[in-house]
Amino acid sequence: MPSESAVDVALRALRHRDRSTTEIRERLDAAGYAHTERDEAVDTLLRTGVLDDARFSALRAQALAERGAGDMRIRHELGRASVPEELVDDALGSIEPEAERARSVVARRGPGPRTARFLHGKGFSDEIVAGVVAGSPEDELG
After folding, report:
1. According to the model, what pLDDT value does residue 135 have?
2. Rounded to 5 degrees, what angle do the CA atoms 50, 52, 56 make?
3. Quick one: average pLDDT of 106-110?
4. Which 3 state secondary structure label does DSSP give 50?
């Protein structure tokens, strides 16, 4: 049995950044806490607002968007953290639209195949890439 409380371990994990409820549960499981102790700690943190999946998903989506991630990448990362789909949708709705983020990348890098590959690698959709990378009809990709 671990020597410090499950709440203390969870708070330490939350010290530098928000985490999802699932991430905290997994961390407490890995630390050897019984399911009842883990669940009580998670309930306490949820009740006090320290743990909040809506806040986590919004902040994580914003951070990923600021680093140039497209919606598919953001959706994937939030899914890996087991964020419920409706919170993922809310988080995506709260950030700058994907097309605007892609236009910013194209403005910095210029249109063309290299930028298209870059955007695809960052998780932007095919439609967005095709729509923003081609500067004119003769530049069409594909």
Report:
1. 56
2. 110
3. 91
4. coil
> Would you tell me how many other CB atoms lie within 10 Å of the CB of residue 43?
11
Residue 118 — φ and ψ, nearest 5°?
Answer: -60, -50
Q: Determine the 3-state secondary structure of 15 from DSSP.
A: coil
If you ran DSSP here, which 8-state letter would residue 94 be given?
T
Sorting pLDDT into bands at 50, 70 and 90, what band is 3?
A: confident
142 band by pLDDT with thresholds 50, 70 and 90: very low
Tokens of 20: 């999802």
Residue 91 neighbours by CB under 8 Å, 6+ apart = 54, 57, 58, 60, 61, 62, 74, 78, 83
Rg (CA), the chain: 19
